[in-house]
Write a structure and sequence with these properties.
Elements lengths: L2 E4 L3 H12 L8 E4 L3 H11 L2 E2 L3 H7 L2 E4 L6 H12 L4 E5 L6 H6 L5 E7 L9 E7 L5 H12 L2 E5 L5 H9 L1 H18 L4 H22 L3 H7 L6 H11 L2 H18 L4
Parallel strand pairs: 1-2, 1-4, 2-3, 4-5, 5-6, 7-8
Antiparallel strand pairs: 6-7
The site of nicotinamide-adenine-dinucleotide has 26 residues, from helix 1 and helix 4.
Length: about 270
Amino acid sequence: MKLGVIGCGKMGTALVEGALKAGAVSAADITGCDPVQAALDAFTQATGAATAADAAAIGASCDTILLATKPHDVAAALKLAAKGANGQPRLVISIAAGLTLTTLEGSAPDTFRIIRTMPNTPAMVGQGATAFCRGTHATPADAETALRLLSAVGHAIEVPERLMNAVTGLSGSGPAYVYLIIEALADGGVKAGLGRADSIKLAAQTVLGAAAMVMETGLHPAVLKDMVTSPGGTTIAALAEMEKHGVRAAMIGAVDAAVRRAAELGGS
Ligand SMILES: NC(=O)c1ccc[n+]([C@@H]2O[C@H](COP(=O)([O-])OP(=O)(O)OC[C@H]3O[C@@H](n4cnc5c(N)ncnc54)[C@H](O)[C@@H]3O)[C@@H](O)[C@H]2O)c1
């Protein structure tokens, strides 16, 4: 696979770094392009990949393209890549938030097999949660390629496109919900006398550890919760307080609000 990266900003660089670390691709097979020299320099420094002049050069030389520009730059980048590809087939993996397969395919020739993805920012530290869906011309082998690349920076699943707004509302926007929870837990620690820095570390590590328990044991969160809730103990006292304040309903409502907003913004 010759992997071309169009848009070597934060996410493009993070995804390539992860793919390299996981051995999903080697630096010798990667070329990036970005009109901003500072972004390109940071990309090459982080990845050791080669650079190309523009998206047309990537389209000409790479069979697989990671499209990682901001959504409003995607159509122009795709047109340039198509010009460079000059009719040759290409797999294009887009990470542009909210751009539908119809929109992406509308800016690309039929020889471009498109995959739309929704990663989240923890991909930057190898702990992303990503969902992707296949366009009209993308094959099962293309889905496997996308899965291999995206799994290198966390957990990845394939979903039908109609669920992409749900993904946006849950894992796309989700890191912010968890930051708020970590901040609030840390406030609780500070209220009880712990220092701010220690409180944030304890809160964040508790979230990390609990998440790892869910992922590694495969147990339902309710089972794990019951396992640490002794009769008449501290944990049930806290859980009763959380239920009184509707934390569960607030979380469901938060995801629901983000899903509705994603639909309003035009994703499907
Ligand atoms: N950062 C996030 O939280 C996040 C999460 C999920 C998805 N995304 C998606 O990832 C994409 C990139 O986001 P980011 O935060 O890395 O943005 P960024 O601004 O850091 O990177 C985008 C890069 O694309 C470059 N670019 C623009 N036009 C180009 C062209 N024609 N050819 C080559 N490069 C071009 C820009 O110069 C810039 O360096 C966005 O579409 C965003 O929706 C971001």
